[in-house]
């Protein structure tokens, strides 16, 4: 039995960027990757704009709760994608780390999030092709 590579998306609050990435990855490549997200200083709830942006694509992300990044969550991942440079991430040997510097969508409306969502979709597809090729 093979297991999918596990990807952990991380930002500060786990309310915007990392939730958007996790929602997209789950919907777009969830059959090939196991996806999680976390924040170094999580908010109480996921951004309503992120939930609305995902809903435009038919992705129901309601009911999700931001979670705190832990050494255990990093250790459970094959790849950790930091969506902001300079995050204080636990170092775990054998885990691959990537940084995708993205703007913070806090305060944006759905129209403003769409280009970020499209950019992330492309990055996620490329990561899935690298980690779990379909051929």
Features:
single chain, 135 residues, alpha/beta, 4 strands, globular
Ranges with pLDDT <50 over ≥5 residues?
none
Distance between the termini: 18 Å
Strand order of the largest sheet: 2-1-3-4
Spell the H/E element sequence: EHEHHEEH
| DSSP strand content | 5-15%
Overall 3D shape: globular
Radius of gyration: 14 Å
Q: Based on helices, strands and strand pairing, what is the structural class? A: alpha/beta
The biggest beta sheet is recorded as:
4 strands, parallel
Quote the average pLDDT. Answer: 95
How helical, in percent, are the residues?
Answer: 25-40%
Number of helices: 4
Description:
With 135 residues, this protein is an alpha/beta fold. The protein is built from 4 helices and 4 strands, in the order E-H-E-H-H-E-E-H. It has helices at 17-29, 48-55, 71-75, 110-131, and strands spanning 6-11, 34-39, 79-82, 96-99. Strands 2-1-3-4 form a 4-stranded parallel beta sheet, covered by helices on one side. Strand 1 (6-11), helix 1 and strand 2 form a beta-alpha-beta unit. Helix 1 packs across helix 4. The two termini are 18 Å apart. The model has no long low-confidence stretch (mean pLDDT 95).
């Amino acid at each position: 039995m093979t297991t999918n590579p596990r990807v952990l998306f991380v930002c500060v609050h786990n309310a915007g960027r990392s939730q958007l990435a996790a929602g997209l990855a789950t919907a777009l490549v969830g059959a090939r990757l196991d996806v999680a997200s976390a924040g170094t200083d999580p908010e109480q709830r996921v951004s309503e704009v992120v939930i609305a942006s995902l809903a435009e694509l038919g992705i129901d992300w309601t009911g999700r709760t931001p979670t705190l990044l832990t050494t255990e969550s990093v250790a459970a991942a094959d790849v950790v994608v930091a969506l902001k440079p300079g995050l204080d991430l636990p170092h775990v040997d054998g885990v691959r780390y990537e940084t995708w510097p993205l703007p913070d969508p806090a305060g944006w409306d759905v129209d403003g999030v769409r280009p970020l969502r499209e950019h992330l979709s492309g990055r996620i597809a490329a990561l899935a092709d690298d980690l779990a090729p379909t051929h």
